[in-house]
């Protein structure tokens, strides 16, 4: 598919706050657009004028490497003007409220706000109060929609179709925004989803979701076509969730020894950053079954697609 062929269909919301309730057709449209835009990343001159004149602010209140750099690169590839905000050294440290910060930035005639915040619901809060397009780059342990979209793009590229695919999300589910967005997105596209991890790291009410839940990593490995291995988010955890990191690795760590027991080796995914030797063994992370770096590449394409569809849906991509 070429960029010129992706046009004409708009998303039902002018914001991307999460994947909850998003129809599978819209998710597929974002993935189709990302597939088309990915071609730009392989050109000798990796830049198109699609968002020339559009100003984007990256409003990050939490540390980030992959997501922030991915959004910045996506914005530059599309010729948008961008501003980067960091909590450190800003007026927030002087007592300025989130809303005052956002409204003052918007007063500089911003078109799109990409926001990451430690509190769930902040993107929706800003969407109700600002005129700019709001894109959720991760809000607490709630959602991380663009990460789930790039995960699904990677799965689609490897398997051809997501419908009927068996995907196990493994690890610290309770503190993960990636897990929830993946559940919503994968189910909308017809995949089967399993959550696997210690009972202490499962979200409350997980059994009520239309998914499988298990606490045996070997069962998850033998069931799944793909494993999405989550990082232990120690910075969000209080004491008492785990006896020790060593015991977690022994019980739930993804190792080659475990994978080789399966009838068929599953695809290995990880949203990063990885705790090597904790949730995943280096031999697995660096193996030919791992698509971790493909996920990173696809992240730029997905964020380009979201920016285009939300801020310039009528533009013919060239």
From TrEMBL:
Pathway: Pyrimidine metabolism; UMP biosynthesis via de novo pathway; (S)-dihydroorotate from bicarbonate: step 2/3
Gene: pyrB
Listed GO biological process terms: 'de novo' pyrimidine nucleobase biosynthetic process; 'de novo' UMP biosynthetic process; amino acid metabolic process
Subunit structure: Heterododecamer (2C3:3R2) of six catalytic PyrB chains organized as two trimers (C3), and six regulatory PyrI chains organized as three dimers (R2).
Protein name: Aspartate carbamoyltransferase
Record field: catalytic activity: carbamoyl phosphate + L-aspartate = N-carbamoyl-L-aspartate + phosphate + H(+)
Recorded family membership: Belongs to the aspartate/ornithine carbamoyltransferase superfamily. ATCase family.
EC category: transferase
GO molecular function: amino acid binding; aspartate carbamoyltransferase activity
Any one annotated GO CC term: cytosol
Biological classification of the source: Bacteria, Pseudomonadati, Bacteria division LCP-89
NCBIfam families (alphabetical): asp_carb_tr (TIGR00670), PRK00856.1 (NF002032)
Keyword Thylakoid included in the entry's annotation: no
Source organism: candidate division LCP-89 bacterium B3_LCP
Sequence positions that bind L-aspartate: 94, 177, 231
Enzyme Commission code(s) on record: 2.1.3.2
Domain of life: Bacteria
Protein's UniProt keywords contain Transferase: yes
Function field: Catalyzes the condensation of carbamoyl phosphate and aspartate to form carbamoyl aspartate and inorganic phosphate, the committed step in the de novo pyrimidine nucleotide biosynthesis pathway.
Record keywords, A-Z: Pyrimidine biosynthesis, Transferase
Location of the Aspartate/ornithine carbamoyltransferase Asp/Orn-binding domain: 163-310
InterPro entries: Asp/Orn_carbamoyltranf_P-bd (IPR006132), Asp/Orn_carbamoylTrfase (IPR006130), Asp/Orn_carbamoylTrfase_sf (IPR036901), Asp_carbamoyltransf (IPR002082), Asp_carbamoyltransf_Asp/Orn-bd (IPR006131)
Binding site for carbamoyl phosphate: 66-67, 116, 144, 147, 272-273
Domain Aspartate/ornithine carbamoyltransferase carbamoyl-P binding: from-to ranges: 14-157
């Amino acid at each position: 598919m070429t960029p010129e062929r992706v046009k004409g269909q708009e998303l039902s919301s002018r914001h991307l706050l999460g994947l909850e309730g998003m129809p599978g057709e819209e998710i597929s449209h974002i993935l189709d657009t990302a597939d088309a835009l990915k071609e730009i990343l392989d050109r000798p001159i990796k830049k198109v004028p699609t968002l020339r004149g559009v100003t984007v602010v990256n409003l990050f209140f939490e540390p980030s490497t992959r997501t922030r750099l991915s959004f910045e690169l996506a914005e530059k590839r599309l010729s948008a003007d961008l501003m980067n905000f960091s909590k450190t050294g800003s007026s927030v440290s002087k007592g300025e409220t989130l809303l005052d910060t956002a409204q003052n930035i918007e007063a500089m005639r911003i078109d799109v706000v990409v926001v990451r915040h430690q509190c769930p619901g902040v993107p929706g809060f800003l969407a109700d109060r600002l005129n700019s397009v709001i894109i959720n780059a991760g809000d607490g342990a709630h959602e991380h929609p663009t990460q789930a979209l790039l995960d699904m793009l990677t799965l689609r590229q490897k398997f051809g179709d997501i419908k009927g695919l068996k995907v196990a999300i493994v690890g610290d589910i309770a503190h993960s925004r990636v897990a929830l967005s993946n559940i919503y997105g994968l189910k909308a596209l017809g995949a089967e989803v399993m959550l696997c991890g210690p009972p202490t790291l499962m979200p409350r009410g997980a059994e009520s979701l239309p998914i499988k839940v298990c606490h045996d990593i070997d069962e998850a490995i033998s069931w799944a076509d793909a494993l999405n291995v989550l990082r232990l988010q120690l910075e969000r955890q209080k004491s008492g969730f785990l006896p020790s990191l060593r015991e977690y690795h022994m019980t739930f760590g993804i190792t080659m020894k475990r994978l080789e027991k399966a009838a068929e080796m599953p695809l290995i995914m990880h949203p990063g950053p990885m705790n090597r030797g904790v949730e995943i063994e280096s031999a697995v992370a660096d193996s030919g079954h791992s698509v971790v770096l493909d996920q990173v590449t696809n992240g730029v394409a997905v964020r380009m697609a979201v920016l285009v569809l939300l801020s310039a849906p009528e533009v013919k991509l060239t």
